[in-house]
Amino acid sequence: MVVNQLEVKNFRNIENTSLEPCKGINIIYGENAQGKTNLLESIWLFTGCRSFRGSKDNEIINFNSTKANIYMDFNAFDREQSASLEISEGRRFFLNGVKMKSSSQIMGEFLCVVFSPVHLSLVKEGPYERRRFLDIAISQLKPKYGVTLSQYNKAVAQRNILLKDVAYHSELYDTLDIWEDRIAFFGSEIIRQRLGYINKLSLYTDEIYSGLSNERERLNIAYKQQAIIGGDNKQELYENLKSQLYASRKNDLITGSTSIGPHRDDLSIKIDGLSARSFGSQGQQRSAALALKLGEAAVIKSFSGEQPVALLDDVMSELDINRQNYILNHIKDWQVFITCCDPANVKHLKDGKRFMMKNGVVKKK
Fold first, then answer.
1. In this structure, are 284 and 268 located in the same domain?
2. Model-level pTM?
3. 198, 131 Cβ separation under 8 angstroms
4. Within this chain, do residues 40 and 140 fall inside the same structural domain, yes or no?
5. Domains of the chain: total
6. Closest among 193, 38, 174, 105 to 94, alpha carbons compared
7. What is the pLDDT of residues 95-123, one digit of tens each?
């Protein structure tokens, strides 16, 4: 998968600029607040996912305009394709001239992974960020997973409402069975998919992290269930989750919230057997987050046959020379966009293109 040309109009501080990247590594450098991250964000949106920066659509339109437009020509699945996105009071995607009915319809057409400083939260913050990483990664591969996740979240929300209402309407107690059955049905599939994904992901993250650390350290990831529900057998997961939901009713009625299920699970990340969150250095934590994202790319390729585009925002910060060298010269046969402030950080790049960005405009150097 390769981006051949990109044109961006009225997107954040970018009024009008274009880019013709190479098929390998593309370095975009410049001072802070010049639009480097905005450029990567514009590419990411063609995955159909929301902004990796957590922004709302109306926040990414240039102040001097009422809409933003992005156009991209790319190679995917052995053919040249074109896509466009208009953002105004919503999003309108077009793929090869055909209007998409929704953002979810374009998912899987353009495959991409992104690493930015916000993704350090994968290691540094609480379980929510790691669950979100898993859910977005799986949704890119299996769009129906997003539907399952939505149904699960709705069922949990309904059970939580009911837990609070039972105190005033005891006749509602028996209706908990309905929502627990739905939680168990959808939740068992979520756990099964997450377990399968992590099993695949771990095949790559260990090797990638080993390369980043010059084989001095080992990374281990594992799915951490808040309550032991079971393995990858869906029926077993369903039955165990349902029985544990029933067993937790007394406590849940007191707290007014559902304490059991995949919405409470986590992804364990350890370096040499120790928690990366609690004991990892800044460089180790950044390397662990990067290994997760590069591993995500490897899983996408194994699943789809297409190597996704990689967007690496400010990836060089707090990495030593060996780790920088690995990124610049050992990620081969796929297209990568790397942003940085100091061009000296990329002096070890042996092949690729360099672009300078200033005031929202890209210039090849």
1. yes
2. 0.85
3. no
4. no
5. 2
6. 105
7. 999 999 888 788 889 999 998 888 899 99
